[in-house]
Amino acid sequence: MSLNDSFNKYEMGETREVLQRQRLIANAIKSDVNWTHIANVGGGCPIVTVVYKPEGRQCDISFSCGLTYSQNMLVKHLFDMQPIARYMVIFLRGWIKDIQLHSEFRNHILILMVIFFLQHEHYLPGIDKLQANQSASIGGMCILRKTNQIGY
User: In which domain of life is the source organism classified (predicted)?
Assistant: First the structure.
């Protein structure tokens, strides 16, 4: 979903426009019986944390740029390549909760740790392999490539 063509914009942090969108989304969710509003979280990438009641699924909704969507598609692709990654993240979430560190680790940190581990152990390809034959930019980001020339 794109609000005011915000999908292709990158806004770092809590601009007035981003906070206004965050309140709009939170209020819409609060008025729907299928959703429970948990919190509005500020910072570099403001989100609205909610639970979809019929499935008990917690969601973090970001609307400050389309990059979050692209990152989620990359994670989905990697997890499709190595399905055990999902179970590893679920296990880590439970363990982190059991040792009472769940407030210190957001889900995306656990996901990144699992992906790094699986890449390090060669169960998932590295980013360089995933980027082979891809365009040099994705959204508003520019991807730097190595050259074989000395001095570059």
Answer: Eukaryota
- The CA distance from 12 to 138, in Å, is 17
Any idea what DSSP says for residue 122? Answer: T
* Domain boundaries of the chain, sorted by first residue: 16-65, 74-142
The CA distance from 121 to 79, in Å, is: 15
Distance (Å, rounded) from C-alpha 116 to C-alpha 118?
6
Query: Nearest to residue 108, comparing CAs of 137, 56, 53, 67?
Result: 67
Report how far apart, in Å, the C-alpha atoms of 45 and of each of 94, 137, 146 are: 25, 21, 29
Strand partners, 142: 137
Determine whether 48 is exposed, middle or buried from the number of CB atoms within 10 Å of its CB (0-12, 13-18, 19+). Answer: buried
Q: Please report, in angstroms and rounded to a whole number, the separation of the first and last CA atoms in the chain.
A: 40
